[in-house]
Amino acid sequence: MSDLTPAMFFEQMKTKVAGNPDLVAKLNTVYQFKLNGPNGGEWYVDLTKPGGEIAQGTNPNAKCTITMSDADFISLVQGKLNSQMAFMTGKLKIQGDMGLALKLQNLLK
């Protein structure tokens, strides 16, 4: 198992988002992540602001909410878990705009 945690991943994502204004402008939405497990928690990714904002907590403006276990989330972002398979087997739950969930892959790579 990797030592990467969701908190570390979201910290790394801040740098990626800040350095990629085209991606922020292209997605232009708010994602909410609800991760269960010992390293879980809630984070949001707000791509409606210049440079984006990524923080722990909840954002009432989220258009797409992703719910999964912390371990499955890490497997997903590391490419060890296929997002479609995770969704079909119930490991990944999506509330809100499914189209935005599909675009999320661009952000999680």
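^ that was protein a. below is b, sequence first then the tokens
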Amino acid sequence: MERKKMRKRSWAEPYKIKMVELVHMTTREERQKALEKAGYNTFLLRSRDVYIDLLTDSGTSAMSDRQWAGLMMGDEAYAGSENFYHLEDTIRKIYGYKYIVPTHQGRGAEHILSKILIKPGDIIPGNMYFTTTRLHQELAGGTFVDIIIDEAHDAQNLHPFKGNVDLNKLQALIDKYGAKKIPYVAIATAVNMAGGQPISIENLRQVRELTKKYGIMIVHDMTRVAENAYFIQRREKGYQNTPIRDIVKEICSLTDAATMSGKKDALVNIGGFLALNSRKHYTEASNLVVVYEGLHTYGGLAGRDMEAMAIGIRESVDDDHIHARVGQVEYLGQQLIDHGVPLVQPIGGHGIFLDARRFLPQLPQTAFPAQTLAAELYLDSGVRSMERGIVSSGRNKETGDHNYPKLELVRLTIPRRVYTQAHMDVVAESVEDVFARRKEFKGLDMVYEPKYLRFFQARFKPL
């Protein structure tokens, strides 16, 4: 008897909705005025003028009922809050690091770490830059050098682990500058600027072996480590049946310290920490956090914020949660791929990265194609995205000219537990409509440029 072919079963989010936030629906004319007022920079739009906000997944997640209940358990003592010790215990159990210094968010941890470890003239290799990380390294007198594999700079390359380090590039830097000039290697999991691309356990082990040989630390930017673990579970041999929680801990065990923005994986609206295994570095960080953030047992956070982060960390490594989180990103990405929209592949963990070079081939990079595309997408539907290209890359500190990254991207970043699949359908339809009209767009000119992190506050006008 012939067996019936089983159809693929649908999946749904592992949660149900208890509360909703109403959004403001706008007309195209209203969006045109808002865009002009914002200088064609989506960061300068008012939230009330945005329909579906995919600017970032940082601090935009929906907290769980348990996290909201945790807010009511806030111990707001200035020193020695019970919530700090709960957070400390959680980080040790889930991630494995010995010492914890809370900070108001990830860049607070980057600041303190850079002041502790970097001396003027130092070289910091890393698997692709991130904006705030690189700036803190430069302000401390260091120079970031990209050692990610070449495939990461090719949006169409299908390498399953485009966050991997090129070991030959790392060795060449050590040979050129000497190990004493390299305070640490910066390793990001689920590399943001590459499109949310993961690093493999195998590659991280190789980096660990090489750095150990020279006595060089590995500092882990772990803000999306659970998403990276998801791809290891899906793609790396021998991990298919390993729980996300165990993969996360193994990743962390191959590093010496970590900076964390709890506003991503940890599902909170504010908060972060610096994690260390060195008692010496912990003592130095505890001294500096008092200067820049707050006492070493609160680091600029309320007790309730630390409690919510501790609960969110535990929720973040649940297999059902992370499968649904990345699954929603993949759902949107596959719709766009099916309609021929150019984007970074494989699809990453926290967002879809439209390839503005291929989307708008008529525009030179100096006409800011990614910035143009982000503006046109908002104008079309009220969907807010962000530029990740020449504007984000900034200027060469020696020549003063723009940095010209190979990737010119628009990031559609999906907040965790916020939007439905219907919202993703709306986004896909808008991107497809803009793609159909892509030959109409002329580009932008930058009319105001701030000194630091210009993508946040720069202003533009149409060419």
